[in-house]
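$ ./design --mode recover --in tokens.txt
reading tokens...
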């Protein structure tokens, strides 16, 4: 029913999932990707869980209706936290891969260390995150660091602006010298990783889960004999139509 040449759909509220698509392209260079950013409704991170769930289901439905899709990568921690089970129930035959904050990776790298997790409000308040956190925080401290407002700046292409630098400084100054690792638990944040790393200094490892999601997607496709090694292709579409978001997404992809 699925064909090797079908698309791998990559979904996010906006341009954030491009950081995951970059990893996917490294691991699966011969695949055809369709990237869908729901920028008409971004950001998701300050909405109610119910709203994020229904927006995510609506976006997924649009993608699978408009394109032949063999896998759906939910390249958004917020949408994964709110809707991954619903998506798996709705598309029981489809490969559905989500992303969650890379707490395990940070814990493996820094046994007994202090770990910060920067993510949206929705991701940090969902039960799924508490379950993840409780798996690892018995012998270490895990700090939740919500960053409302940062996604908006990145969506506007202002990740390197003075405004973004001031925002990050205010948010992260209390953690300077205190963290062994900072997990970027929102797919938008890798686009400002260099600024975060510069603020926290070399003593803090800054990491995210995009690579793991890409490897998991490859594993799931291989398991079903659905890997494709063709020319490699990326389509970028947005719920807001062709415009600033699609341009920014293409720029960030390079
Ligand atoms: N990129 C999304 C994530 O990984 C969230 C962005 C938003 O708030 O819309 O959580």
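writing sequence...
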């Amino acid at each position: 029913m699925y064909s090797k040449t079908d698309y791998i759909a990559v979904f996010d509220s906006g341009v954030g999932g491009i950081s995951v698509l970059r990893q996917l392209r490294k691991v699966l260079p011969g695949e055809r990707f369709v990237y869908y950013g729901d920028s008409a409704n971004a950001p998701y991170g300050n909405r109610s869980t119910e709203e994020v769930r229904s927006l995510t289901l609506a976006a997924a439905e649009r993608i699978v209706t408009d394109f032949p899709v063999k896998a759906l990568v939910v390249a958004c921690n917020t949408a994964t936290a709110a809707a991954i089970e619903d998506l798996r129930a709705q598309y029981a035959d489809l490969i559905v891969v989500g992303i969650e904050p890379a707490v395990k990776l940070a814990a493996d790298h820094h046994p007994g260390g202090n770990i910060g997790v920067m993510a949206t409000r929705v991701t940090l308040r969902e039960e799924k995150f508490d379950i993840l956190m409780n798996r690892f925080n018995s012998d270490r401290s895990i700090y939740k660091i919500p960053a409302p407002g940062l996604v908006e700046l990145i969506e506007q292409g202002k990740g390197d602006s003075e405004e973004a630098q001031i925002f990050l400084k205010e948010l992260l100054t209390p953690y300077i010298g205190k963290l062994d690792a900072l997990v970027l638990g929102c797919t938008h944040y890798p686009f400002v990783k260099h600024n975060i790393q510069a603020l926290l200094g070399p003593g803090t490892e800054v990491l995210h889960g995009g690579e793991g999601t890409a490897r998991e997607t490859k594993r799931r496709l291989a398991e079903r004999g659905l890997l494709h090694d063709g020319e490699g292709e990326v389509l970028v579409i947005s719920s807001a139509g062709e415009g600033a978001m699609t341009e920014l997404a293409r720029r960030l992809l390079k």
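exit 0
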